[in-house]
Amino acid sequence: MPEYVAELRHAVEQATPVLRGLSEERSRLRPQPDKWCPREVIGHLIDSASNNHQRFVRAQFQDDLVFSGYEQDAWVSLQRYRDAPWEDLIVLWSSFNLHIARLMDFVPIDERVRLRPRHNLDELAWKPVPRDEPATLDYFMSDYVAHLKHHLAQIGIRLD
C-alpha cells in the first residue's frame, strides 16, 4: 500500500471526530473576512475529492495526465457550504475520501509510476510539476493527500 493511502485514511480517522467537535458557530466562523470558514474548507475538500476522484480513474485509461480544472472559489460560493448542514458535510467528506483511499490502493503500481510526459500538473497540482518534466499518477495522488492535510491544518486539525 502506498504511504499516502495510509496517510489519507489516518487523516480521515483523526479529523472526523475533531470536525464533529466543532460547534455550529465555530464551523461558520471565518478567520478573516476573505478566508473560508471550516464548513467552506470542508466543502472545498469535497469539491477536490469529486474532481480528483474522476481524474484518478480517468488517468488509468489515458496516456497523459491532462484534466479540466475548476474555479474553486466559485464552486464554494455557488454551493453555499457555509449554510450546509455541518454533519452532512462531515459524512460526505469522510466517506468520499475513504472511497478515494480504496481506489488509490487498487491502482496497479505500473500505472502509478508510469512517466507521463504530457500533463497539466503545473496548473492542477497543489505543488505543481513543471510542464517540461514528466509526471506520475503516484505523484498526483500523493499531492492530493498533502493538499487535504494542508487544509485540515488551516482549520486547526493537527494530525499525528
Summary keywords:
8 helices, 160 residues, 63% helix, globular, mainly alpha
Whole-angstrom Rg: 16 Å
Give a short account of the largest sheet: none
Number of helices: 8
**Low-pLDDT residue spans:** none
Structural class: mainly alpha
Mean pLDDT: 97
Order of helices and strands: HHHHHHHH
End-to-end distance, in Å? 19 Å
* Helix content class: 55-70%
Beta-strand level of the residues, as a percent range? Answer: under 5%
Using DSSP, what is the number of strands? 0
What general form does the structure show?
globular
Can you describe what's shown?
The protein has 160 residues and is mostly helical. 63% of the residues lie in helices and 0% in strands. The protein has 8 helices and no strands. It has helices spanning 3-21, 24-28, 38-58, 72-79, 86-106, 109-113, 121-124, 137-154. Helix 1 (3-21) packs antiparallel against helix 5 (86-106), helix 1 packs parallel to helix 8 and helix 3 (38-58) packs antiparallel against helix 8 (137-154). The radius of gyration is 16 Å and the shape is globular. 31% of the residues are buried. The model has no long low-confidence stretch (mean pLDDT 97).
Layout: helices, strands, pairs:
Elements: H1 3-21, H2 24-28, H3 38-58, H4 72-79, H5 86-106, H6 109-113, H7 121-124, H8 137-154
Helix pairs in contact: 1-5, 1-8, 3-4, 3-5, 3-8
Summarize the structure.
With 160 residues, the chain is mostly helical. The protein has helices spanning 3-21, 24-28, 38-58, 72-79, 86-106, 109-113, 121-124, 137-154.
